[in-house]
């Protein structure tokens, strides 16, 4: 049964107004809840997978948010997986409508507190199309950040899996990406075009020519990037 705001279901504090908007906020208005829903809609299913994509959210609070969504009928939990129900799926145009609005009215260059290299690399790991690299298996990408605490990351791209590594893997490196953390964030989110970043020297890629050319095709970029590009075109 979908949550109706009763205390027995453990929903948020009520607003005391008989209105669909307030009922919606009682389910979705708590901090982090919509971001958890966002990641579930983007395909995250396991607890650790969701946690890695939201490093600012403690595991204890994430557990509470997921339990809340289960009680409120937006998520089902079984066999170690969290899957969205039709009620959560119906939020897709609303969640990505917020992306469209934010790209147009609230987005710009990243603030320092928004830059986390590990989070970005986790997002990129989930957005690699291995088929674009052809028959090579694996393809190893080394990311060298020009700033930030941790400067080196590796992606081991196989046909059926992409692994994020924090120590050098036991394979030869095929591509080296040298870039500022803020720049790669903006490229990933569509705020800076990949080609423009390369042309301006903000991002350099070295390695075998065919793989260098394949990299921008292999990067699927953020699911929000289209909204950001559209907003930039409108401006």
How would you summarize the topology of this molecule?
Blueprint: H1 20-28, H2 33-41, H3 47-53, H4 59-71, E1 75-78, E2 81-84, H5 86-89, H6 92-105, H7 117-125, E3 139-145, E4 152-158, E5 161-165, E6 175-179, H8 181-188, H9 194-199, E7 203-207, H10 209-218, H11 225-234
Parallel strand pairs: 3-6
Antiparallel strand pairs: 1-2, 3-4, 4-5, 6-7
Keywords: DNA-binding, Transcription, Transcription regulation
Domain HTH hxlR-type: 19-110
Organism: Geodermatophilus africanus
Question: Could you give the order of the helices and strands?
Answer: HHHHEEHHHEEEEHHEHH
Helix content: 40-55%
The CATH H-level superfamily of the largest domain is SCP2 sterol-binding domain
**Runs with pLDDT <50, length 5+?**
5-11
Proportion of beta-strand residues: 15-25%
Overall shape: globular
Largest sheet: 5 strands, mixed
How many helices?
Answer: 11
CATH architecture of the largest domain: 2-Layer Sandwich
How many domain modules? Answer: 2
What's the CATH C level of the largest domain?
Answer: Alpha Beta
Tell me the structural class.
alpha+beta
Annotated CATH topology of the largest domain: Nonspecific Lipid-transfer Protein, Chain A
Mean pLDDT: 93
- According to DSSP, the number of beta strands is 7
Radius of gyration: 20 Å
Termini gap: 44 Å
Keywords: DNA-binding, Transcription, Transcription regulation
Domain HTH hxlR-type: 19-110
Pfam family, one: HxlR
Protein name: Transcriptional regulator, HxlR family
């Amino acid at each position: 049964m979908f949550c109706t705001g009763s205390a027995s279901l453990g929903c948020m504090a009520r607003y005391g107004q008989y209105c669909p908007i307030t009922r919606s906020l009682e389910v979705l208005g708590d901090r982090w809840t919509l971001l958890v829903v966002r990641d579930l809609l983007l395909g995250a299913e396991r607890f650790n997978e969701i946690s890695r994509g939201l490093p600012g959210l403690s595991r204890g609070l994430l557990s509470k948010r997921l339990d809340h969504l289960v009680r409120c009928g937006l998520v089902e939990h079984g066999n170690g997986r969290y899957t969205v129900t039709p009620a959560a799926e119906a939020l897709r145009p609303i969640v990505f409508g917020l992306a469209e609005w934010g790209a147009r009215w609230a987005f710009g260059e990243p603030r320092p507190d928004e830059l986390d290299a590990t989070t970005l690399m986790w997002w990129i790991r989930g957005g690699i199309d291995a088929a674009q690299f052809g028959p090579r298996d694996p393809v190893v990408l080394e990311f060298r950040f020009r700033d930030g605490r941790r400067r080196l990351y590796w992606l081991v791209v196989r046909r059926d899996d992409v692994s994020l590594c924090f120590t050098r893997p036991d394979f030869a490196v095929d591509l080296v990406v040298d870039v500022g953390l803020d720049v790669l964030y903006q490229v990933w989110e569509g705020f800076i075009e990949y080609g423009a970043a390369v042309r301006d020297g903000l991002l350099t890629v070295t390695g075998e020519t065919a793989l260098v050319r394949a990299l921008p095709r292999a990067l699927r970029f953020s699911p929000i990037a289209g909204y950001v590009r559209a907003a930039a075109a409108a401006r």
